[in-house]
Fold this protein.
Amino acid sequence: MIYEEYVKASLEDYGRNGRLEERAILRVLEDISSYHSDSVGFGARNIEQSKLAWLLLEWRVRIHIPMHYGESYRVTTWSRGVCSPCTTLRDFEIFDEEGNLCVSASSKWTPVNAVDKKLLRVTDTLLAAYGTEAKSAFEEGELTRMREPKDYDYEMPYRVYRKEIDLNGHLHNLCYLDIALETVPEDVYRERDFREIRITYRKEIRADERDITCKYKNNDGVHTVGVYGPDGKLRAIVALS
């Protein structure tokens, strides 16, 4: 089943040259995945009944055409089924008013028990509810986890704010992109025209883990940021190009 919604982002979602910001694109994709799950009984509004929540593991986003202020967009999403007993793939596309493909995206998720947070297997019941599609947003198919760089160009501290904590008591998924954009050099941030976003989530940052470290590496125009917890362990990798 391909699920779709029409969106018109708010003014605050737009930045330089009237383009939709990277964070806003990810939020649109995250929202429609939630709406799809709500519609089949396994979303946030059904969590008390289903006792199931979805944990995001990977993002890959390609921006083909920048999205601009004042325009409406058609956003589609679908399940591509399992890639392991405990993980499933979800893809996305965003089209403008003329039907041009603006964004392609793919993501990897795992179901977890909403009470004890233990990983769950992807069951036939889940697959049947979502209606798996063979269509893929990218020719490459499955998402692979990014590896942490062997070395970095520099590092900087970051203080997690209370407003960045989500309903599960963790740093919200979108905030890792915010942190990466704060970490890249000023000229990279100011002149950016990123067309590829990759995020690998390794382990959540909890609400009581306030002081974290961000490490930056530029490898031939691929700007990679590793986010490390207070324990020094890698929690996420963000790559922008």
